[in-house]
């Protein structure tokens, strides 16, 4: 799947920034591919890009409108269809990370056919996966895991891959969600894979490679989240990580979208090791990544120092303060490149 850029990012009328995390993630990592954003009345998210109408975006040279908003269940709100049809009529392709296939909606399918435009459903693919085998394979792997969903697993994995490459390691980022696929240009939306094949899909995504090569795998959900734990467990078993990083947001008390209490960091470390040892007996935690966006800089440093001391692990906010300490941990545990 090759998605033409520049992008025009459609945010719809989502209620907060987390619901626009696809668009925001693209801007954070591929801003040079983006021209502007389209927001409907009532939208509470903002990528910082110029607001544009659809016709204005097309005139500016946008080749694809990305549906950069998400919701529980990956549905397409009916009142967004008009904007998608308008983008197709304006000569743009449309790409979406929602679960619903764009072409399954008659008005969108007809507009795409009439205008000769492409519809990209990033969450869907034509690959056929086997069930997971759990067989040991060559190469090294890092997986990001979470105390909750939407806590920074993708950003941590991207930052870790970038830092490893800058330090001379051979490293690659493995996208497991729609935003990661938009950013990296390849990958797999794991939550759209039939449950029996999640572990096998994770094995396919992070295949055997050179012994010195690191695959940094984007985590999904949380082993403790009642909605998404099934995907998280299949990804853990299939990715067979040697190392994992726990990602955490310190101001939450319940998990996003449910009333389940947020688990502690130690709980996540213990359960990840217990479950992960099924396919990699040597799995270990190499650090804690904390999303400190809701904290002042002084409070963030104090919190990270407390976490680092409590768990005896590097603790950082990779977006705010960098992730070098975790690369140092890789060097200490596995050797220099």
Descriptive terms for the model:
single chain, 337 residues, Rossmann fold, 2 domains, five-stranded parallel β-sheet, globular, DgcN-like_N
Overall description:
- The chain is an alpha/beta fold.
- It has 12 helices and 11 strands.
- The chain has 2 domains: about 5-120, Rossmann fold (3-Layer(aba) Sandwich); about 140-335, P-loop containing nucleotide triphosphate hydrolases (Rossmann fold).
- The chain has a 6-stranded parallel sheet with strand order 7-8-6-9-10-11, with helices on both faces. Strands 2-1-3-4-5 form a 5-stranded parallel sheet, with helices on both faces.
- InterPro entries: DgcN-like (IPR011669), DgcN-like_C (IPR035086), DgcN-like_N (IPR035402), P-loop_NTPase (IPR027417).
- It holds the Pfam family DUF1611_N.
Blueprint of the fold:
Layout: E1 7-12, H1 21-30, E2 34-39, H2 54-59, E3 64-67, H3 81-89, E4 93-96, H4 106-115, E5 119-121, E6 140-146, H5 153-166, E7 170-174, H6 178-184, H7 198-205, E8 213-217, H8 229-239, E9 243-248, H9 265-276, E10 284-290, H10 297-311, E11 315-316, H11 318-321, H12 324-334
Helix pairs in contact: 1-6, 3-4, 7-8
H/E element sequence: EHEHEHEHEEHEHHEHEHEHEHH
CATH superfamily of the largest domain: P-loop containing nucleotide triphosphate hydrolases
CATH T-level topology of the largest domain: Rossmann fold
Strands, total number: 11
The total of helices stands at 12
Q: Which CATH architecture of the largest domain is right? A: 3-Layer(aba) Sandwich
User: From the helix content, strand content and strand pairing, which structural class follows?
Assistant: alpha/beta
DSSP helix fraction: 25-40%
CATH class of the largest domain: Alpha Beta
Averaging pLDDT over every residue, what do you get?
Answer: 95
Strand order of the largest sheet: 7-8-6-9-10-11
* Global outline: globular
Could you describe the largest sheet, including whether it forms a barrel?
A: 6 strands, parallel
| Spans where pLDDT lies below 50 across 5 or more residues | none
InterPro entries: DgcN-like, DgcN-like_C, DgcN-like_N, P-loop_NTPase
Domain D-glutamate N-acetyltransferase-like N-terminal: 40-124
Domain D-glutamate N-acetyltransferase-like C-terminal: 131-327
Pfam family, one: DUF1611
